[in-house]
Write a structure and sequence with these properties.
2 copies of one chain form a homodimer.
Chain A: H1 3-16, H2 21-36, H3 47-55, E1 66-69, E2 74-78, H4 84-102, E3 104-112, H5 118-127, E4 131-136, E5 157-161, E6 169-173, H6 180-189, E7 198-199, H7 209-214, E8 216-217, H8 223-238, E9 261-268, H9 277-290, H10 306-318, H11 324-334
Parallel strand pairs in A: 2-3
Antiparallel strand pairs in A: 1-2, 3-9, 4-5, 4-9, 5-6, 7-8
Chain lengths: 336, 336
């Protein structure tokens, strides 16, 4: 489908469901961006969820987002249940502003909702020649180490930095073996999920997407991934005043109130310590890794971000493939 | 062995090898602390390595550590090849000072060396009611995803925060499946290492510690762990002006020059956003996780730090067990 037309459609759908124009503009851009990155789990498959929540005002269609200045470096944002894309967009802009002024920007955001890919916001910082960490908590998906009940979200760690190359270095990695969106999408499309990534609610391994959603996802690296997911819950949720400890509502299944997701953004100038040398050094670093002897069946050693941006470029040319199921849903949303 | 006597012995050994008194005091304390935490890989087993490097002045026994103020929040430290314990100790104190003043402290350290456990420095911040991230790079141990040659260190991510309980929340997790010190110690004591954690230099799985050291360690979670180790190399090494991209020298095997390890410490006041509520909220968070239904064969759900501090207390009472091999080495070092 032509991307301009698709974008216009998505924007209209959002507006029809009550979202204000500027938020509809921002949100539809990010949804298309997710598709271009090949992260279909964070794209069109979520339109119905967002619209359902907007209609029920669980996402505030006209929020008053308050930015509280703590210092020139630190800001606290109450997003007033704005759609996550907008809350995070405001947040990363503030963190960038603070970092440019003082060398470091720290922004905590509460009363937000699902914000799509952390990559979006890290990219914004990298485009301004800054280095960034973007953290967000999420609804229960992973059982803490030692427990059989889910509590932590897939809680990604995202880190972006200028690479000295056209493609930014952006690592965006959930603390579950695969991301929840992939399981959601598999459920929607009737696909199986890979073995070894999830358990059913009795604690037995499963490849059934529906059972996995009712059960728990496995964290990466056992207690290590569980600990990292816990860290992300603390810094995104506890620190910022957002929900935490399993209280972030599932955006698909729980329509009893706003999600109150929390985000934490840390942005720094990468040249604070070594000045202009940063770019030549990071370039050297990446070159050294890329020149290592390769494992069997590997053509090229890639840095985090490269494969995502390659997909982006390719999809921008060849367009987005929309599964029939999801196309139907979009048409239905547009028909109200 | 009586801990006071042991400490005195270690201090003397350091001084005999040329280290100045105050650095010998700090270093011997941290080495005993590693043993108390049950991290023997970072304790007495490293004494000979430190002494060898001090004797050859690869660790500067009388460094001039320079602290450059970038802003009230940001400092850059040139540790002048000090022993890592001291460089990191100076660094975390500066980061704590900056955080207390402005809410956030960022300190980059170059020309340092192996600093023991990241937990030591995170603990210092937590004891001052602060939240901290401590990062360090390390000599090649992990092959980047797609390569068969080691380049990244085990590059830990360490995060500490007040828990509202006596025991701090300190997550300290290397990006390799097990830490390199454990393999070093297994090599020294003639033990096997567990299967699935390392490859020999031809890329085949091995449980032989010596072969693993000549080969490569496996990162946690495949490309995810590899990406996180890369992030740690960038922020600890590239950003600070330290060695990076596989250039950090192995402290045991490479006596051709100083290591030039880099560290990055980020310290924040956990009450910047929600004030006093932070403590009640983190307490609630931990309580919620601990009350979850437990997996089979699990008695208690623990938060990161709990098992380490339990060992610490136990070892403080019952004393440290020193393997004959290592005791011999210590005696030899003391006899020069």
């Amino acid at each position: 489908m032509n991307l301009k037309i698709l974008k216009k459609n998505l924007k209209n759908i959002f507006i029809k469901h009550g979202l204000n124009k500027s938020h509809a503009e921002i949100s539809s851009s990010y949804i298309i961006k997710a598709e271009l990155f090949g992260a279909q789990s964070h794209g069109l498959a979520r339109m119905k969820m967002y619209c359902d929540r907007i209609k029920k005002k669980l996402i505030n269609p006209n929020p008053k987002i308050k930015i509280k200045k703590i210092s020139n470096s630190i800001s606290h944002i109450d997003a007033n249940n704005a759609i996550g894309f907008v809350a995070a967009d405001v947040g990363i802009r503030q963190a960038i502003f603070n970092a440019k002024k003082t060398g470091i920007g720290l922004v905590g955001i509460k009363n937000s909702s699902h914000y799509g890919l952390s990559t979006f916001y890290a990219e914004k910082a990298v485009k301004e020649n800054l280095t960034a960490w973007c953290y967000t908590n999420a609804p229960p998906a992973i059982a803490p180490h030692g427990s059989k009940k889910t509590l932590f979200g897939t809680n990604p760690i995202c880190f972006g930095t200028p690479s000295g190359n056209k493609t930014p270095f952006i690592l965006d990695t959930s603390m579950s073996i695969i991301n929840r969106g992939k399981i959601r999408r598999a459920e929607k499309l009737g696909y199986k999920i890979p073995p070894g990534v999830a358990l059913d609610k009795l604690g037995n391994p499963t490849t059934n997407a529906k059972k996995a959603i009712l059960g728990s996802q496995l964290p990466i690296a056992s207690f290590k991934g569980s600990g990292l997911a816990w860290m992300v819950d603390i810094i995104s949720g506890v620190l910022t005043g957002a929900n935490h400890g399993g209280k972030v509502r599932d955006p698909f299944d729980d329509l009893t109130g706003p999600q109150n997701v929390g985000h934490l953004f840390i942005v720094i100038k990468p040249n604070i310590f070594i000045g202009k040398n940063y770019l030549s050094q990071i370039k050297r670093n990446i070159k050294t890794v890329k020149r290592l002897p390769k494992s069997n069946r590997i053509n090229k050693i890639l840095y985090p971000g490269e494969s995502k941006y390659a997909k982006y470029k390719k999809n921008l040319k060849k367009g987005i493939n929309i599964p029939t199921n999801i196309l139907k849903e979009i048409k239905k949303l547009n028909a109200i």
